[in-house]
């Protein structure tokens, strides 16, 4: 992780907080009760995981779009086309029920990691990108998975 810029690392780790919170409220009933009483039911368990997971998956489309701006010609077209896949996946696949949505998000984040690797492989993402994305994705997928029966 030494090569990852400090600001990117800190912001990436901070972005895990809602995922960790959601997973924590699934695992620890007392935390869930505290969260429900103080934040409301939308901000605990599978609900916050679905809500925040969808937002971040769509956000990552924008990150990939930014990478595509570094390309030219047909390569740029491919980069732009691939960059919208995570947002479209979230739009079409999330929302059919809490558990099926979590499964769709897990698949979406796995697919996103493949797209991350592609942009990294074709030198559109920074060289440190996968050093950041692999552990972040592992934590996200683990947090989402905790909410499944």
Automatic annotation (TrEMBL):
It holds the Pfam family DUF3429. The chain crosses the membrane at residues 46-65, 77-96, 102-120, 132-148. InterPro entries: DUF3429. It comes from the Bacteria. Keywords: Membrane, Transmembrane, Transmembrane helix. PANTHER family: TRANSMEMBRANE PROTEIN 69. This is Uncharacterized protein DUF3429. It comes from Rhodovulum euryhalinum.
